[in-house]
Amino acid sequence: MNDMSTQANESLGDYVARARAWLDAMEPRFGHEARKGLTVDQDLALAREYQRLKSEAGYACITLPRALGGGGGSEIQKILFGQEEFKHDFPTTYFTVSQGMPIPMLLRYADKETSQRLAPPAIRGETIWCQLFSEPSAGSDLAAVRTRATRDGDGWRIDGQKLWTTWAQYADYAIAVVRTDPTVPKHAGLTFFWLDMKSPGITVKPVRKLAGESEINEVFFDNVYVPDSQRMGDVGAGFRVAIETLMIERYSVADDACGGPTLNEFAKLAANSRINGRAAIDDGQVRRALAEAIVERQGLRSIHRRALSAIAEGKEPGPEGSIRKLRLARRRQAMGELAMDLMGAEGMLLEPEGTSTLDHVWSWMDVPGARIAGGTDEILRNTIAEKVLGLPQDYRPDKKVPFNQIG
Amino acid sequence: MENEILTMLLDQAVRLLDAEASQTGLKALLEEPGSFDAALWGKAVELGWPAIAIAEESGGLGLGIGSLAPLLQELGQRTVSLPLASGYVTAAALLEGGVAADVAAQLASGQAIATLALGEAGECGLSPAVVFSGGTLKGAKAPASFAAVATHALVSARDGDTPGLYLVDLTAAGVTRDVVPAIDNARAAAALRFDDTPATLVVAGWNALLRHTGVAATLVAFEQIGGTERCLRISVDYAKERKVFGQAIGAFQAIKHKLADMYQELEIGRGCAIDALESLEEGRGDFLMLACTARLGAGMAYDFAARECIQTHGGIGVTWEAEPHHHYRRARSLALEIGGAPFWRDLLVDGQQILETV
């Protein structure tokens, strides 16, 4: 395959056409059929191979420099490529976090030697980075992390526990936010590091999710040594760096169905299901649910389309883009429940080979996490109320209290 | 050039509406059935509002439907009722049908006022029972907005099994106009009855009837979005100002989350309205489906916002003096006057395949 990285003066339409053709050519090797029946290890190996080809073609980390294996392209190209890639069922999930946040942060905060050494293999899919943020007592309230780092010569010793860490079981490296000073208020006592996941004292234990298969883990730290040279940002600046990490993707893309079956699939199911012998698609309750879902999808499509135009013109997209996940995750859950209702007792069947994108039952089974990860429904509503509408911040009694004095 | 005209026109509109649309005036309109702000309409006519979107060959300025949408949004914010959408839709139908060019020109100049008489008793959709036969109409329509003051009506009726839109001069013989008390008296509603009333076929067929109603739905959606914006604005302002239990009610999540939900409904409705308008301007094949989503999305948003605006205001929200009830009335009026949600949902679900394939 030729080097297909960004070509000068190419229109966005041509860019998308070229991306489509490339993705279509990848379909036989990496698509849904090719992945059927693979073990996770086999799928990960396939994923690494796909990632290597993506990097060669300039479609991996599209906004990062070509010299590092990125695409050297624009944010709008990255979004457009992502939209096209969504249409395929390629094994990209292992790299979403790794390439989305830790690598760009490494390029911003690590010294040149380190970033030149560590970023390219991560972009090519040879290594995976995870993000050690949440803990048992610090989810929505990230500044409440308890994992401690204490000075030890030229470095630090880390003790504690992280939780909900995506793909930690395969991770080679990590970025982490930990508490370096418990005597100051919680936001002020944090520091940010990168670290080697093979360091002595780190134990990774996968968390079994309600739907079985899992990408999330507990990560335990027992006297883990991290050199001070791996600190990212100043001591005490960890919260700000963590927020910067979460803001890197100022506009992230999720498909119309939030990873569940499309509304068209739902309509097909309703056309083939009966309520006392009548086609379910002719039933008023079903029609109302479907109509309201279509209306919501259309509104979100419009918001997305306008955001893309803004980004393409170098402007900031409006805050309305922030409602997308909040709406779609709940909708996927509701439509999953209704689909199962229409299936009647057959809705109890959990097909061992089923996937969320194609199977209504699996979609329902696996959706609760979507309402929690990346901002719970409740936190997202608070954010809209405070940041968009300008309403007062919630009462936060621990905000100015030294961390070690919070009850 | 066109953009400059539009900007100027909208600036003028905001100034005029801010000066003229007082709470006292709006409340006076609610008192009496069939109310209409004729003085404001006169000023709107002077400023050329009825003409802006109507085609040049019909005597309008030909600035396109996109010029009317933001103006209706401004009206909607202030719950001002002017027969602009009905005038545009009627003139556009007349042009398409190639009939009554003189009436279209009068609509553009503001000499004529149109009402869209689409509803009928016992039917929440658009299927008409009024009969056209031998050049005249027979039957009764449900209350229609602006029918109390209109000179002409665009009436849905059937000729045999074929539905269509018909133009009626409301001064003609056999027209009975009953001004009716309504939830929103400022809409100048009246019920029309036709007893062998002369009428002219404008466009025939179910598809034409739906398309023209879809245009009306798209315009009304912008009025609804304007109203929703206003409900959110005054709710947020009140939530910041009103204190209970030692803090602003807007600091409680019960209120914050309600208003965050209102914002979501607004943006989804707005997105649907924008997309329908764009499809209409581009003459795309998905227009009717997008008009359905605009009708439903903007309607749900305004109903939700109007209802929860009162709730956010608490006791003061249920008083005559406060603003929220204007929206509570208007949201429902707009939701009912060109076919109810159950009808539009049906249409959307039956055609949803189009949205998957376009």
Give an overview in words.
The complex is a heterodimer of chains A (407) and B (358). Chain A is an alpha+beta fold and 407 residues long. In chain A, 40% of the residues lie in helices and 14% in strands. Chain A is built from 13 helices and nine strands. In chain A, the strands form three sheets. Chain A has a four-stranded antiparallel beta sheet with strand order 2-3-7-6, with no helix packed on it. In chain A, helix 1 runs parallel beside helix 4 and helix 9 runs antiparallel to helix 10. The longest helix of chain A has 29 residues, at 284-312. The radius of gyration of chain A is 23 Å and the shape is globular. Mean pLDDT of chain A is 94; it is low at 1-5. Chain B is an alpha+beta fold. Chain B folds into two domains: 1-204, Butyryl-CoA Dehydrogenase, subunit A, domain 2; 207-357, Up-down Bundle (Butyryl-CoA Dehydrogenase, subunit A, domain 3), CATH 1.20.140. Chain B is built from eleven helices and ten strands. Chain B has helices at 2-20, 23-31, 38-46, 65-77, 84-97, 101-109, 206-241, 253-282, 287-313, 324-336, 341-357; strands at residues 114-117, 131-133, 136-140, 152-159, 162-169, 175-179, 190-198, 200-204, 243-244, 247-248. The radius of gyration of chain B is 20 Å and the shape is globular.
Index terms:
heterodimer; A: 407 residues; alpha+beta; Butyryl-CoA Dehydrogenase, subunit A, domain 2; Butyryl-CoA Dehydrogenase, subunit A, domain 3; four-stranded antiparallel sheet; three-stranded mixed sheet; 9 strands; B: 358 residues; 10 strands
Order of helices and strands of chain B: HHHHHHEEEEEEEEHEEHHHH
State which percent range the strand residues of chain B make up.
Answer: 5-15%
Please summarize the sheet with the most strands of chain A: 4 strands, antiparallel
The second-level CATH architecture of the largest domain in chain B is: Beta Barrel
Domain Acyl-CoA dehydrogenase/oxidase C-terminal (chain A): 236-388
Domain Acyl-CoA oxidase/dehydrogenase middle (chain A): 130-224
Domain Acyl-CoA dehydrogenase/oxidase N-terminal (chain A): 48-126
Family (chain A): Belongs to the acyl-CoA dehydrogenase family.
